[in-house]
Amino acid sequence: MASYKVPTLAKAAKLPKKQVQLIANGDLRQSANQKCWPEQAKMEETLKAALAAEGYDLVRAHPYKEAEKHGFIGSQKEGMEVFTGIDPDAPLIVAECVWQYSHHVLHGLMTHRGPILTVANWSGTWPGLVGMLNLNGSMTKAGVKYSTIWSEDFTDDYFKTYLRTWLKKGEAKHKTSHVVKFKHVKVGGAERKLGEALAKQLQREKAILGVFDEGCMGMFNAIIPDELMNPIGVYKERLSQSALYYESTQVSNDEALAVRRWMEERGMKFVTGPNEETDLTDNQILLQCKMYVAAVRIADDFGCATIGIQYQQGLKDLLPASDLVEGTLNNADRPPVKSRDGKRVLYAGEPIPNFNEVDECAGVDGLFTYRVHKAMGQPVENTLHDLRWGDPDKSGTVEDYVWVFLISGSVPPAHFAGGWAGASSERQPAMYFRLGGGTIKGISKPGEIVWSRLFVEDGKLKMDLGRAGVVELPAEETNRRWQATTPQWPIMHAVTYGTSRDQMMAKHKSNHIQVAYANSADEADRAMLVKAAMADALGIQVNICGTKKSGKGWE
User: Fold this and answer.
1) Tell me: the pLDDT tens digits for 42-78?
2) What are φ and ψ of residue 65, in 5° steps?
């Protein structure tokens, strides 16, 4: 009989009753983890007290790392090591007050048998809410069961009641009465006809989604499997960021300077300085303008209807940030780019919808929006934002709860009051970008918007849509919100109709939210319904969230 050396499997110690394990997932970048750690440590102490009040001990499943000056899981490799020591049947809390890379821990959560609870502090300081929503969306796509909760200080009744239920039952749920299945929504004949026609056109005249390397920033939820994307008529062109880097090096200084000059002639302000390490410099802007030209040419080479750039990872050690590029691509009125032979202006008079952080769900969503709004004569510019944070208006100007939709710079200037003249470019924070690069910063203009999110759940494509208004706040209040988040980034003050803070957090399956303006409230309602009808005709399961501006429902 043959004899084999059978491996000994690692076994975790059984966790005692009335104990709950905690993990803190972090960024891939050491600088971000170190800077954000004090806020995480403070949050964990508050959370520990909240569990103690319920008779439970909260124990960390991995230690603070003295050499690295933080206690975050900083890689997939480290995450796998941590999970070998976790009791797979015991309750587990994932506590987040920072942006986190979901793939660091998703493997362990997919095989964890005990109850899982994701928790975030309601704060804009670091994007913990954004990180938690990404992890939630990733687990939703992966089919992992979880509960989720958030709080400013973990002492409010809403949090305590939810936590108590989870501790006792191993799961807890939020009320989502604001959600209506599309089949129950009343849709006008003209809107349904247009939506269905656009769906048939997309399936017949297929579109190419240009993807500069998948899987940015650990966002598992941002990757749509080909077998789900192809049937709706969208196909990926998998491109390499190395090609974008090379093409950027082939753009002349004169071409790049012409791009900047075009922006400045329209009122764009670049906030520059002499120090490459801390300031936005002329050289950084020059490289960003070269990347813009390169991106347009590559999109044309492959016939892309939309393209996605990785933003933080991949090119961060070679080039400045891509934000200036992304926001410019998303704008219909943008610097002209000629073909290499100089005979054609590429995508003349049109945006090239860009999905920041190669979020393919946002890419397909943006493509839908572009086609719907173009057919309806509505503004075609659209973008994703982070669902960053929200707060009551301290100035008293607006009674409604006001969300902070904030993203790193991919917002088109058409969304700003004043357009290009309302835009400025500031250096990206050094902890994210060693080589700098400017954003496109501005304040989104008042108006009516449609918000949406495409996501994967139960092996199917699904979409949530809703209506909101962008409100104008005093400069002092806007600055307060900027200083509480990231002041270099563009901001949108949004009021979601018929969807409360907690309802949005309970239902939304992503860190990102797609937005587009319409010319009036009625036209926004119609545009949303056309987009919903288009998605429905493509076999996507559609939900309408909230109400109309008037407060009336959709049924």
Assistant:
1) 999 999 999 999 999 999 999 999 999 999 999 999 9
2) -105, 105
SS3 at position 340: coil
Q: How many CB atoms lie within 10 A of CB 457?
A: 15
Cβ atoms of 162 and 51 closer than 8 Å? no
DSSP 287: H
Helix or strand or coil: residue 541?
A: strand
Q: Which residue has the higher pLDDT, 82 or 6?
A: 82
Tokens of 458: 């139960």
Domain parsing of the chain, residue ranges: 19-169, 184-545
19-169 folds as: Rossmann fold (3.40.50)
Is 99 within 8 Å of 120 (Cβ atoms)?
no
What pLDDT shows up at residue 138? Answer: 98
Q: How many Cα atoms within 13 Å fall on the side-chain side of residue 42? A: 12
- 3-class state of residue 401 by DSSP: strand
Q: How many CB atoms lie within 10 A of CB 273?
A: 11
Angle at 87 between CA 85 and CA 90, to 5 degrees: 150
Q: Kindly report whether the global pTM for this prediction surpasses the value 0.70.
A: yes
The whole-angstrom separation of Cα 285 and Cα 445 is 26
Indicate if the pLDDT at residue 543 is higher than 70. yes
Closest CA to 365 of 385, 350, 349, 346: 385
CB distance 537 to 199 below 8 Å: yes
pLDDT at 314 over 70: no
Assign domain 184-545 to a CATH class: alpha beta
Three-state DSSP state, 221: helix
- Mapped onto helix, strand or coil, the DSSP state of residue 229 is helix
Q: What is the mean pLDDT of residues 376-387?
A: 98
Looking at residues 86-95, what average pLDDT do you find?
Answer: 97
pLDDT digits over 7-22, tens only?
888 788 899 999 999 9
Per DSSP, the three-state class of 125 is coil
